[in-house]
Specification:
heterodimer; A: alpha+beta; 3 strands; about 50% helix; about 25% strand; B: alpha+beta; 4-stranded antiparallel sheet; 13 helices; 6 strands; about 15% strand
Chain lengths: ~160, ~350
């Protein structure tokens, strides 16, 4: 896989950050949003550089939250790498065991590398996924917030 | 000693079929779907993921269905499954301080910044059987707060700034921890190995041992400094990219136990800490783990280690439900030859005793 890494080494830090942001959103995208986007795509040819593969990633944590690292437990991950006819490659590492989700995430990643296709992917997939995740996050935070304890002081000794 | 025994194949196959029928129960009752278990038996799923040491809600739910609700058996199934998959690597250590909070309480401070957030908890329920659940129907919707949620800084950080609490910092060079799934544990074990063992450990075992520390078998005077439950992001560096990307999120429960002091001639006394971490919403497990972690730190904190919960070989060798269940249940395997030898021995002893008696 070193060949692949070399081809990315030209990218700037800003590109890397943006790519990481999109990959993070794609990994958490609900299947329905990925499928809805894929349904609107024409036939897109690609070849596998790494067939979708299920595996594990060890989740690490730190003693006391900030101390020494320890191996906490694993989680399932599916990964794949593909190349479009244009030569752009897409990578996906997605939580869970769905090869289809990994495939669509890698396809989106590859298309995002292509200046002619990137805008459509951003509008058609990345933006809706970001909005969806933000609103889910906001809703669950508000539900938690509604369970925040308001203490009432019954009497002050100095009253 | 076991001997290879042939036979019983047909009995075993028929036993599988009987088991499948029992698992299904009355066919007139609709079959449980895996997603129903995943959504409606969430805490069972969380326990199977924690002790199965594999975060995958669908898989844990399926294992619970296959095991007919026997969670220790489901944990066994999950552990066996994980052994079939390749390992891609490890994540960056999770940032529990950046957790998206669903619940966050402190029993040590009433007025913590961000407040006491109860979240979904059984703590204040009355433990009366709710017969309306048997009748079905939809529950009332959760209320959404109007005020946007504020920051919830960690309690340990707040106490830490005053220097009253033992700091927790990485070792020099932040080394990779030993992995108990690949190397056997050796004693004395370092804290990272102990924490990995405790994170996978049987909840019942940790609960009993944690309880023993509260009842006086090692005195650590714990306070629940902070318990938080919510979602954390997982960052991973794919070999194809060489930079970290978020590959998903997991729900975790974290317990920061604050315990009585340690100090020395050169160091003023400070609160010491025990740490618990579990997948999903597993508060009892995280708290019991934190009590056991603290008890097991006796040696490094210069305390006498006299109680079972402080004995790391005892604790870490008996904490795993898979090992414990396997060794207890192996007694069901044929021991015909062993038992035959014992029978012969006891007959000889009795015969010898009879001769001595009649001779006297």
């Amino acid at each position: 896989m070193t060949v692949l890494q070399d081809s990315y080494s030209r990218s700037t830090d800003g590109d890397e950050r943006e790519r990481a942001r999109c990959l993070g959103l794609l990994a958490r995208a609900p299947a329905e949003l990925l499928e809805a986007w894929a349904a609107g795509l024409g036939a897109t040819e690609f070849e596998w550089l790494r067939q979708p593969e299920q595996g594990l990633v060890m989740v690490q944590a730190r003693a006391g939250g900030t101390g020494e690292r320890f191996n906490f437990g694993e989680m399932t991950v599916t990964r794949c790498v593909l190349r479009l006819r244009s030569g752009r490659t897409g990578v996906a590492y997605v939580q869970g065991r769905s090869k289809r989700r990994a495939e669509l995430a890698a396809l989106a990643d590859a298309m995002l590398q292509d200046p002619e296709l990137a805008e459509a992917v951003r509008n058609g997939l990345i933006a809706p996924v970001a909005a969806h995740l933000a609103s889910e996050s906001e809703r669950s935070a508000r539900k938690a917030q509604a369970t925040k304890v308001e203490f009432f002081t019954l009497a002050h000794e100095d009253d | 000693m076991y001997v290879a025994a042939k036979g019983g194949e047909r009995a075993i196959v028929n036993s599988y079929r009987l088991l499948a029928e029992r698992r299904r129960g009355d066919p007139a009752v609709p079959e449980l779907e895996v997603r129903q278990i995943r959504e409606q038996l969430r805490l069972a799923v969380d326990r199977v993921m924690t002790e199965g040491s594999l975060y995958d809600r669908d898989l844990a739910a399926l294992a619970i269905k296959q095991a007919g609700g026997d969670l220790v058996e489901a944990i066994f199934l999950v552990r066996a499954y994980r052994a079939t998959l390749p390992r891609f690597g490890h994540t960056q250590p999770i940032e529990t301080r950046a957790m998206r909070i669903d619940r966050r309480i402190s029993a040590a401070f009433k007025d913590i910044p961000g407040g006491q957030i109860l979240g979904p908890t059984y703590d204040y329920t009355q433990r009366l059987i709710d017969f309306t659940l048997a009748a079905g129907g939809s529950p009332a919707q959760a209320i959404e707060g109007i005020a946007p949620p504020g920051e919830t800084p960690d309690v340990a950080g707040i106490l830490g700034t005053e220097g009253l609490l033992e700091p927790q910092t990485p070792a020099t060079g932040d080394p990779q921890p030993m992995d108990l799934t690949r190397e056997p544990i050796e004693f004395p074990a370092a804290r990272p190995e102990r924490l990995q063992n405790l994170a996978r450990a049987d909840e019942g075992f940790l609960l009993a041992m944690g309880y023993s520390t509260q009842r006086g078998y090692s005195h650590s005077h714990p306070f629940a400094g902070e318990i938080r439950y919510g979602r954390v992001e997982l960052e991973f560096v794919p070999e194809e990219l060489g930079f970290p990307v978020v590959i998903g999120e997991v729900e975790v429960t974290e317990c920061q136990m604050i315990n009585q002091f340690a100090g020395s001639a050169t160091q003023p006394p400070e609160f010491t800490r025990g740490y618990g971490l579990a997948f999903g919403h597993s508060e009892r497990k995280a708290m019991a783990m934190a009590l056991c972690d603290r008890a097991l730190r006796a040696r490094e904190l210069g305390e006498d280690a006299r109680s079972p919960a402080q004995d790391e070989e005892f604790m870490l060798s008996h904490s795993d439900s898979l090992e414990a269940s396997g060794f207890v249940q192996h007694l069901k395997l044929p021991h015909y030859v062993d038992f035959q030898a014992e029978l012969e021995l006891i007959r000889k002893l009795r015969a010898a005793a009879a001769i001595t008696e009649s001779g006297a």
